[in-house]
Give the backbone structure.
Amino acid sequence: MSAVAVRVRPTRTIDSTSILIRDRVRPVMEDALPELVASICDLGLIYPIVIDEHDVLVDGLQRLAALSQLGVTDIPVIIQAATDCDADIDRLRHELAANGVRTNFTPVQAAAARRRLRDLAERTIHHRNGIPLAERRKNWTSELATKETGVSRSTMDRVDKIFTIAEDAARPLIVRRAAAEGLTRIDIDHLPVDRVLREVQLVAEATAALERYPALVSVPGEGAQLNMARHLDSLPEGERAAQLESIAALWSRSADAVAAYECLRDTSRIEDLLEAGNRAAAAARSLRETESLTADMRQAWGAYAHQMAELARNLSDAITEGTPE
């Protein structure tokens, strides 16, 4: 694998051999690597590797090891100084201001910037007036990120909810994928944060509903599944079991109708067939006019024409049978 999807845009990419790894208290957790590798394959890299200005790894050893196992050599990174926290925050603040002049921040970029500010604040071990500095900085990191990016705190909070869902290994893969793809839709496609968050929450709620009531899988549409699950939740246990049996019987009978409806809604393949038939007719006419249409071509395409004529009659009959004149 030469590259992976990255949900938060990195500062740049760097060759994996250029990243310096110093002695660390926490080594790579080998037992957790297979799950992380699978997650990156399925969802992409949610958050880039963090290095300092000297290419020394600051955060992301586990993610870097997973990328290495996948054979990724161009590593997406965010640059963050690793020493004096106050100086780092000032540097990041200037960086945000400079970026803000060049281009507007997306909500995902703003939330990622706030995360970097919070990481910097939490790394300090200094206390002032007996209060941990990291605790004192929780609020003003949001204020600073809002000031420099122009994205409101509430919007960044909603993006953080999507980040949290995407990174939560305990959640079903379908939910995490919806959240990861949602970050890209906000960042690249500029979809509204509220809309994406609602869609992700709907997927999460519908998935949980199917875990409670597997019979609802035959009900088409996440919204319908969720509404039916809420109705079932409100029933006494005895009534719930009877209702589930009725639902399963009803939708199993109508499943063929749903499939047929979807088949007729998809006209792309028949349109491709019509286009191919028209091209073949024009080609055959051109060859016939120059007496270049061979006997085997005439025989083969004559058979196709007969089959298509039968198909046209069959389709016409199916559509018009029982229709008043």
Observations:
- The chain has a mean pLDDT of 79.
